[in-house]
Automatic annotation (TrEMBL):
Gene3D superfamilies xrefs: Spore Coat Polysaccharide Biosynthesis Protein SpsA, Chain A
A single Gene Ontology CC term: Golgi cisterna membrane
GO molecular function term, any single one: acetylgalactosaminyltransferase activity
Keyword Zinc-finger belongs to the record: no
Organism field: Desmophyllum pertusum
Protein's membrane topology: Single-pass type II membrane protein
Annotated protein name in UniProt: Hexosyltransferase
Predominant place of localization: Golgi
Assigned keywords, A-Z: Golgi apparatus, Membrane, Signal-anchor, Transferase, Transmembrane, Transmembrane helix
Keyword Transmembrane helix: yes
Stated family: Belongs to the chondroitin N-acetylgalactosaminyltransferase family.
UniProt lineage: Eukaryota, Metazoa, Cnidaria, Anthozoa, Hexacorallia
Length: 601
């Protein structure tokens, strides 16, 4: 079924009206006639109807003179988003602030071409009643529809007064005015724009001035997807358990010798030199599938035997008890990850919830341990893999003419900082002088404190922009992270990056979720993205040592190969690639039409 979304706002607009209202109507329905003509609107189509009385004047928080605005309604369109319910539309990151297209219409009716695909539509504007009395509002729909009204001019006070759920035949909104016997579609003389955004129509830009969608509030209170919820326990410092095990050398036999690269061909880093990760419990997300063929080719993550996981955890916790008697108690296993070296031994990342018996607090204990091969070889801490809880992490985004998704990224990072209170998280954006965003103003309006941006003209180049952005970061002890657009990032990714980046040792290339059209991070539908290496994290010093991109990619302005080239160079530099499922990053489906093209100011 094709989809629509509409939103109205009604406000007092003439001297003949004693009360102002805002009406918000959100509906989803097939790409047929949206609003019926008056002669086709019949009572048997009305599923829900509420009466409102206009008998008392109520103060308003909206000071704009509606009569000064042009006639009509703002008509905003989100193209090809495949949503089948209002809930999924509410979880589309650029709804309702950043439409694909903006128009003005002059009656509450939309007729669109058949077989055009799936769009979301929203109408925003004021309805101006011309007489005082009782008004009736009716809604009829072949899909999801809602009508919201407010006793004041502010949309924030709107409440649901009428609604329709799926499986009905048609969709329309109408009113019956005082002294009238029939319901009528609201015509242009009673409509006024919510905002005159005609100058913004040529850009797909994020617009904070647009009102939010009330219906979406209940779907944004929390994620059904447990992986997108914030971590509830603080991390235990490594110094709290550093006496548990002795340090030991760690140098896997499967690493490439930088001094002997004979036979190393392009993209062997991805195809041949990524060692499998085994994990318990195995990260599965409802609605997310895997490609069996790609899983085999790209050495994706595999389940770790439960008994092996418990054995290494119990061995470690016995060592903790011996070193810190009656101090820590195991509560649960968050996860155990293993990298197997068939010659030298197995390396594990243990992530456990432990209780500190001295204060009753629960903490995340996350440490690497190593089990060397050989008789009587003791569990030990591998040298160089003690992760830094407060390492500065720089998320690097590059873009051109995709301002609304850059805005979404900024807001996403704001959410992460609000959840984690992480003072060591930074944002770097390199933008090719896009006309659809003012980066300086976007950052000033945000709550972020750790950021900088570079804006220069030119055709989009991922390699040029990433290289320049990395150069702008001066701290060699910082972790740099290349980030793609169209992502939703959970707050737990940041410490996951810190755990899997060790200077001079490891590079983290998480395997993210690629959402199908209509999927979201809240309601995932998609697959594990085996081919993507667009998100890669490492220490700035390591990037400098292996030189970043190869010379053949230095000035590349087309897509393809640059992310795999980074993996090649990291592997040739003697670094180990950490590749595993990352249930905290979701890539939204999007059309690639027009991406990175030049846009006129």
């Amino acid at each position: 079924m094709n989809l629509w979304t509409l939103k109205f706002a009604l406000s007092i607009g003439s001297l003949f009206v004693s009360v102002g209202l805002i009406l918000t109507d959100v509906c989803l329905f097939g790409r047929r006639e949206c609003f019926l003509s008056p002669r086709r609107l019949s009572n048997n189509l009305v599923v829900s109807l509420e009466r409102l009385s206009f008998l008392q004047t109520i103060s308003s928080d909206h000071e704009e003179n509606v009569l000064d605005l042009p006639k009509g309604l703002n008509h905003h369109v989100w193209e090809y988003n495949c949503v089948k319910t209002i809930e999924t539309l509410c979880n589309f990151p650029v709804f309702p602030k950043a439409p694909d297209r903006r128009h003005i219409i002059f009656r509450t009716e939309i007729i669109a071409a058949r077989n055009h695909g799936v769009d979301g539509h929203r109408l925003v504007g004021y309805v101006i009643p011309n007489s005082t009395g009782e008004y009736y509002f009716a809604v009829a729909s072949n899909g999801f529809s809602e009508v919201w009204l407010s006793p004041i001019k502010s949309w924030r006070a709107a409440k649901q007064v009428a609604y329709i759920r799926p499986h009905d035949a048609l969709s329309t909104v109408a009113w019956k005015r005082p002294g009238k016997a029939m319901f009528e579609i609201i015509e242009g003389e009673s409509l006024s724009l919510y905002t005159n955004d005609s100058e913004k129509a040529k850009y797909k830009m994020f617009d904070d001035e647009l009102p939010d969608a009330h219906y979406c509030a209940k779907y944004r209170k929390g994620y059904a997807n447990k992986y997108m919820k914030p971590e509830i326990y603080p991390s235990l410092e490594s110094t709290a358990v550093n006496k548990t095990l002795a340090l030991c050398d760690y140098s896997p036999s499967y690493l490439v010798d930088p001094d002997n690269l004979l036979g190393f061909e392009q993209y062997y880093g991805v195809y041949k030199h990524i060692s499998k990760t085994y994990s318990y419990p195995y990260p599965n997300i409802d609605g997310i599938v895997r490609s069996q063929a790609a899983h085999q080719v790209f050495q994706a993550e595999n389940p770790l035997d439960e008994q092996e996981a418990w054995t290494v955890v119990e061995t470690y916790m016995e060592a903790v008890e011996n070193s810190y008697p009656e101090r820590y108690e195991l509560e649960s296993i968050v996860r155990v990850e293993k990298k197997e070296d068939p010659i030298n031994g197995g390396r594990y990342l243990l992530e456990l919830v432990v209780r500190d018996l001295t204060n009753g607090g629960s903490y995340i204990l996350a440490e690497y341990v190593y089990q060397p091969k050989g008789k009587n070889a003791a569990l030990c801490y591998p040298k160089g893999l003690q992760w830094n809880r407060t390492a500065d992490v720089y998320l690097i985004l590059t873009a051109k003419n995709l301002g609304r998704w850059v805005h979404r990224f900024i807001k996403n990072v704001e959410e992460i900082v609000q959840e984690t209170k992480d003072a060591h998280l930074h944002v770097v954006i390199f933008d090719f002088d896009s006309p659809d965003i003012d980066l300086e103003q976007a950052f000033k309006r945000s709550t972020l404190k750790n950021y900088h941006f570079i804006s220069e003209p030119g055709s989009y180049s991922r390699t040029i922009s990433l290289s320049r952005a990395v150069q702008s970061i001066k701290d060699p002890d910082a972790i740099i992270v290349t980030i793609d657009l169209h992502l939703d990032i959970g707050s737990r990714l940041i410490n996951d990056i810190r755990k899997h980046c060790s200077k001079g040792k490891t590079v983290y290339a998480p395997q993210i979720v690629y959402l199908n059209c209509g999927g979201s991070s809240a309601l995932p539908r998609g697959a594990w993205y085996h081919y993507s290496y667009g998100t890669v994290a490492m220490y700035k010093e390591d990037w400098g040592k292996f030189g970043g991109f190869s010379k053949g990619f230095d000035n590349k302005v087309t897509w393809g190969g640059e992310d795999w080239d980074i993996i090649d160079n990291a592997v040739k530099g003697g670094l180990e690639i950490e590749r595993k499922r990352c249930p905290w990053v979701y890539h939204y489906y999007h059309t690639k039409a027009g991406m990175w093209k030049e846009a006129r100011r």
